[in-house]
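thought: user wants a sequence for this fold. calling inverse folding tool.
action: design(structure=
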């Protein structure tokens, strides 16, 4: 708890371009959480270097992700939005937690197996201990809840195990975090294969709408979306492509699926796709304009980066000092 609020922590990698799915499924809903929770959203650049990055590109993407969060409506006065690499406690606690994590546990992580298959020429130790750094991120802020996708559940489970193991030895040091299950956003599927989630790492650029795609690109991608040969617009499992288009339409327009089906009664797929394209443009164009406005205000973004890193450092250092004391590191002489 911070004050009378529970703590929420989440981290995002600045690799890959965020998609409409990330926005409608997560980001958009986070805006409303800051009243209920004390929120920390870290741009986890230290996690990103577990695979080789181009330095200039990493820096650029990290800044644009941070800007995007603000543009999406996360108020940086109420939400601590910061770079992981600016807060030294992350690396310090990660080292300590490494000594409380077993090789066998890390060996079982499916993301490690997938990533080492994908980057066979660079299976570095950081890739292996990545989940421990993630545990440090979460535990430093005594997070009660962590909104994560299904792909990160195994890492969150490990975080809980590490925290419980530590607490069993040293007393109640860490809050045991839970997965955040609140109002979930729309689940947006690939435009090219509606059985798969829309993903920022999809190799087919037509499968995903990126948040910074221009209006014509968005319209074109919607037009090319895979549908079926049924010829009717109904919201049902047998028509996953149409259902996905309706989901996108509803998430962008605030309408229910019943309302949308009624609206498109008797229309062809072409008309539906056109309407979806316009609805998406209607949501993303203002977001993109806000990003462009914010990018011009370098001093403002810089001040957000600085102030929030200081806040994160302050909160996280409290936990770190407690941990260091518990495990027997020498006391720091008072200044
Ligand atoms: N591993 C997460 C991902 O790739 C990012 C992440 C790092 C994270 N630290 C975190 C997510 C802490 C939630 C909490 O998506």
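)
observation: tool returned 335 residues.
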């Amino acid at each position: 708890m911070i004050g009378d609020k529970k703590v929420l922590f989440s981290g995002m990698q600045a690799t890959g371009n965020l998609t409409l799915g990330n926005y409608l499924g997560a980001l958009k809903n986070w805006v409303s959480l800051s009243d209920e929770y004390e929120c920390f959203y870290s741009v986890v650049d230290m996690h990103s270097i577990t695979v080789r990055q181009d330095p200039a590109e990493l820096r650029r993407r990290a800044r644009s992700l941070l800007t995007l969060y603000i543009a999406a409506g996360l108020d940086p006065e109420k939400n601590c939005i910061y770079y992981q690499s600016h807060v030294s406690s992350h690396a310090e606690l990660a080292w300590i937690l490494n000594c409380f994590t077993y090789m066998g546990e890390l060996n079982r992580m499916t993301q490690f197996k997938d990533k080492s298959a994908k980057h066979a020429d660079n299976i570095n130790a950081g890739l292996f201990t990545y989940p421990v750094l993630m545990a440090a991120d979460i535990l430093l802020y005594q997070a009660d809840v962590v909104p994560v996708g299904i792909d990160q559940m195994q890492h969150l489970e490990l975080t809980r195990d590490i925290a419980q193991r530590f607490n069993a030895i040293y007393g109640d040091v860490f809050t045991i975090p839970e997965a955040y299950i609140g109002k979930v956003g729309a689940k947006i599927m690939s435009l090219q294969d509606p059985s798969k989630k829309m993903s920022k790492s999809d190799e087919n650029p037509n499968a995903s709408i990126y948040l910074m795609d221009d209006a014509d690109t968005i319209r074109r991608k919607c037009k090319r979306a895979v549908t079926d040969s049924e010829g009717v617009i109904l919201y049902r499992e047998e028509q996953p492509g149409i259902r996905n288009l309706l989901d996108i339409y509803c998430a962008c327009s605030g309408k229910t699926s019943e309302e949308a089906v009624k609206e498109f009664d008797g229309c062809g797929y072409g008309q539906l796709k056109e309407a979806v394209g316009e609805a998406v443009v209607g949501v993303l164009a203002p977001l993109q304009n806000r990003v462009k406005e914010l990018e011009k205000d370098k001093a403002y973004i810089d001040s957000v980066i600085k102030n929030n890193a200081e806040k994160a450092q302050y909160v996280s250092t409290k936990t770190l000092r407690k941990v260091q004391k518990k495990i027997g590191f020498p006391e720091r002489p008072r200044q």
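thought: summarizing for user.
answer: Here is the designed sequence. Residues 9-11, 13, 44, 47, 134, 137-138, 146, 148, 152 surround tryptophan (CB under 6 Å).
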